[in-house]
Specification:
The complex is a heterodimer of chains A (110) and B (259).
Chain A lengths: L1 H16 L11 H21 L4 H25 L2 H28 L2
Helix pairs in contact in A: 2-3, 2-4, 3-4
Chain B lengths: L18 H9 L5 H25 L8 H57 L4 E11 L7 H13 L4 E4 L2 E3 L5 E4 L2 E4 L2 E2 L4 E6 L2 H9 L4 H7 L3 E12 L23
Antiparallel strand pairs in B: 1-7, 1-8, 2-3, 2-7, 4-5, 5-6
Classes of the chains: A mainly alpha (110), B alpha+beta (259).
Protein name (chain B): Membrane protein
Pfam family, one (chain B): DUF881
Family (chain B): Belongs to the UPF0749 family.
């Protein structure tokens, strides 16, 4: 409950402060957000599975973000940045879908 | 990442179908490290999401990659070149049209001016402008045709551009004759008083008539009376039929103005 409130507060802060994204961060932020979402859904699923571990969640969250950003960075250096970004988004999207499917099975048995 | 791995089969059967209760359990507000860390991460995620969404909303060129920027620049450059070319072409067309039409206009204007000049010279149109009106009163036979001829000559010398005597327009081919004591200009018999109208510089014409030993004095010596009136607008309304040349033909002009 409190983390959900934290999410809402974060969104509100982002809207009201309206910070400008630094240039060096601009290619990585969207991918990092997707990766973090993946970690969040994975965490919810772990909660429902009864195996949630805060240390694991934090590490998975941060490593997801860092790895996603790193892949995009590497892709930019290799000249395939946009393609690799697309790849990362697809992979993370698939994982989000499968996690959501698992959550759905837990909650609705369907 | 291990948080997303498939779970091991639940060992506790009581927790098997209690997804909601487990969620509620997890959602219970607790003040421990777990909650604090999760809240911090959720806060960061929410902040990042909102920031990214707003950045996407007002996304400009600065968020694009180098390759995309180069491509856009290339596109713009080639587009610029195309438009430049188009501009030059259209400008050339425009210049051509403007020059052409102005040339034509000037030619038409010049031709019209020349036509009007020639019409006035030939006496086929009425003419108006500043000038003088001269009235000669007296008895028939007092003013002789050489005097009238001198008068016409004097008017022409003074720059008269259109001359009318009585109801006859005086042009290049005009003649003045005397027959049975009456004066004729181009078959038109003049009746006293004679009215002579001339378009030209009024002062010059008046002076040309009035100088000592001039026309007016000559007429007085012949016993008649002449008055010269300067007017800002004199209407020469007598017309001449232009003669048709039976023999003379213009020599073809070699000048480039000929069509």
């Amino acid at each position: 409950m409190i983390p959900a409130l934290g999410l809402i507060v974060g969104i509100a802060l982002g809207i009201f402060l309206d910070p400008s994204v630094p240039v060096w961060l601009q290619p990585y932020l969207p991918i990092a957000v997707i990766a973090a979402l993946d970690a969040v859904f994975g965490g919810i699923r772990a909660v429902l599975d009864g195996i949630f571990n805060d240390k694991v969640f934090v590490i998975s969250f941060l490593s997801n973000v860092v790895v996603a950003a790193l892949i995009v960075f590497l892709g930019d250096q290799l000249g395939v940045g946009s393609q690799l970004s697309t790849g990362v988004v697809v992979v993370l999207g698939i994982r989000i879908f499968s996690n959501v499917a698992s959550i759905r099975r837990h909650l609705f048995h369907a | 990442m291990s948080s997303t791995t498939p779970p091991p089969p639940p060992t506790d059967p009581t927790r098997q179908e209690s997804g909601w209760s487990r969620l509620l359990e997890a959602a219970k507000p607790r003040a421990n490290r777990k909650t604090a860390v999760a809240t911090a991460l959720a806060l960061a995620l929410g902040f990042a999401v909102a920031t990214q969404v707003q950045a996407t909303g007002k996304q400009g060129l600065e968020s694009l990659r180098t390759t995309d920027l180069v491509r856009i620049l290339d596109d713009q450059t080639s587009r610029n070149e195309r438009l430049d070319l188009e501009t030059r072409r259209l400008q050339a067309t425009r210049d051509e049209l403007v020059n052409g039409s102005s040339k034509d206009e000037a030619a038409v204007k010049a031709a019209t001016e020349r036509l009007n000049q020639l019409r006035i010279l030939a006496g086929t149109v009425k003419a108006t402008g500043p000038g003088i009106t001269m009235t000669i009163t007296g008895q028939p036979g007092q003013v002789t045709y050489p005097t009238l001829l001198d008068l016409v000559q004097e008017l022409r010398d003074a720059g008269a551009e259109a001359i009318q005597i009585g109801t006859a327009r005086v042009v290049a081919q005009s003649y003045i004759a005397e027959h049975d004591g009456a004066l004729y200009v181009d078959n038109t018999k003049l009746t006293l008083p004679y009215t002579i109208k001339a378009v030209g510089d009024g002062d010059t014409l008046q002076a040309a008539m009035n100088f000592p030993g001039g026309i007016v004095e000559t007429i007085r010596q012949q016993g008649a009376e002449a008055t010269v009136t300067k007017a800002p607008s004199v209407l020469v309304d007598a017309l001449q039929q232009p003669p048709t040349d039976r023999y003379a033909r213009p020599v073809p002009s070699a000048s480039p103005s000929a069509p």
